[in-house]
User: Fold this.
Amino acid sequence: MGSGDWGLGIGDWAQSPIPNPQSPIPNPQLSIFILLKKLKFLIINLIKNKMKKKEISQPISYKIILIGNSSIGKTSFFKKLSTGEFHEKNISTIGLDMRTFDIDIINDKKEKKSFNIKLFDTAGQERFRSITTYYYKGSQGALLIYDILDRSTFDSVSWWVNSINETLNNINNSKCVIILIGNKSDLINMVDRKREVTEEEAKIVCEKLNLIWGGEISIKNIGYEELRNLFQSYVKQIYDIIGEIKVQKQKVTKIENYRQRRIVPKKIC
Ligand SMILES: Nc1nc2c(ncn2[C@@H]2O[C@H](COP(=O)(O)OP(=O)(O)OP(=O)(O)O)[C@@H](O)[C@H]2O)c(=O)[nH]1
Ligand SMILES: [Mg+2]
Assistant:
């Protein structure tokens, strides 16, 4: 029986005349029956709508990690995205830092998708690699940055990709989308500095290693809004590949232990 169908089909009621809403209902038993059916229909619809609304309003949770060698600009990206600030001073990260971002994206079908992104800033120094790789778990996206003026940071890209694939992509069918980003593009115009990695090379590596090309940027010069839009586009690309998933709860308490514990390197070249 359809939801709007109040048809009579049992016992004597099957013989009863169809009630005319204009004329008074002759049978009181029938009117109670109709009212109860109506009520049941309304309650079911109410519950269905509530469940639908809950489904739509629930944001999609992603964990995204910033990875790459030391001094390539991970913390600069993280800070500018969070506060709009950029610091010239080099303060190397130890352990890691985390921040949440709420993002709304309108997809191709003009539907609004809400995201709750946990972004992790990791340490690039070799001595912290075991901590960094430990926190890969549960990531749906990785922003892998290199310095376009420092060949060695680009040469390490395959190491970072392997470490992600070994930890995530080959285990339990989990999927982590890796986006490659070349940083410090502002420095190629300086007389005493020169580019060591071309964009074409980076694109070839992306094809070879199955990465998404995130483009060349200057975290120093990029505007706050521009960086937020860029980050949104990265989230959308991750979403286009992995879609909606349920994310395991992260143990934030452990992360808190590492927050703000930073050291200044003895000498910065
Ligand atoms: N000129 C220029 N300098 C930048 C840019 N991005 C970052 N830097 C500088 O590069 C240095 C290192 O940046 P960080 O963001 O701390 O590097 P990191 O990748 O977090 O390094 P670790 O924490 O050691 O892994 C800092 O002195 C920044 O000011 C950029 O786009 N242009
Ligand atoms: Mg850092």
Remarks:
- Residues 59-242 form a domain with the Rossmann fold fold (CATH 3.40.50.300).
